[in-house]
Design goal:
The protein has 209 residues and is α+β, with helices and mostly antiparallel strands. It folds into 2 domains: 6-66, no CATH class; 77-201, no CATH class. The protein contains 9 helices and 4 strands, in the order ααααββααββααα. It has helices spanning 11-21, 27-39, 43-47, 51-66, 96-107, 110-119, 142-149, 154-181, 187-201, and strands at 77-80, 83-87, 122-128, 131-134. A 4-stranded antiparallel β-sheet has the order 1-2-3-4.
């Protein structure tokens, strides 16, 4: 059998493994359940694995939590559910509602909600030869996109989140001044932006896994 590696993990698998590791299961059950998630096998199949194979999968699993992530450049395009999407990295190109949505996902847990964050950043594109044309944001499809992103490669989605997070934390203060000068924020939105600014100052986004 092929033993999965870091590069093989989907967002769904990584999130499930993290959830298992922080649960109150026994260490033995954590290992078995994590291997089930990593390989798609049942508990019975895992328990019947030859010791060398079981140990090798366990070793690969341990590497996920003990080694640095391999270098992975953020992609300009991401294939989601068989369709091609572009990624918005510049916070200035987002609508205000996208800011508040992204902030909410991050506050609820970056790892657990990375698929929702990326779903707020992508837009459909059409390719004609070497040309790419941007489509309209699919606001009403956010939940569906987020669900499909769970099956994307974890490395790809993580790279997008980290790169965007760095730009976000570096530009959010300047963006707040920009929006206020243009008079595009209501009183309520100014309050929400204040929360964003305080969060940015506290380093609410990190590069952690």
């Amino acid at each position: 059998m092929t033993i999965p590696t870091y590069e093989d993990l989907t967002v769904r698998q990584f999130q499930e493994i993290v959830a298992i590791q922080v649960s109150e299961m026994s260490e033995e059950d954590k290992l078995i359940q994590s291997i089930c998630t990593l390989t798609g096998m049942t508990e019975r199949e895992v328990e019947e694995l030859p010791i060398p194979t079981f140990n090798q999968i366990g070793f690969n699993l341990a590497k996920i939590f003990t080694t640095e992530l391999p270098d992975s450049k953020p992609k300009k395009y991401l294939r989601i559910g068989g369709k091609l999407y572009g990624v918005t990295y510049n916070p200035r190109n987002l609508a205000f509602y996208q800011y508040t949505d992204i902030q909410a996902w991050i506050n609820q847990g970056t790892i657990a909600n990375m698929h929702k964050v990326v779903a707020s950043l992508v837009f459909p594109v059409k390719r004609y030869g070497f040309l790419y044309f941007k489509g309209k944001n699919e606001v009403d499809r956010h939940a569906d996109l987020a669900e499909k992103i769970l099956d994307c490669k974890y490395m790809d989605v993580h790279a997008i989140c980290v790169f965007f997070s760095l730009l976000w934390s570096n530009s959010i203060k300047a963006l707040a001044c920009y929006l206020e000068e243009k008079g595009e924020m209501t009183k309520e939105q100014k309050k929400e932006m204040k929360v964003l600014l305080e969060a940015a100052g506290d380093g609410f986004i990190t590069q952690s896994r």
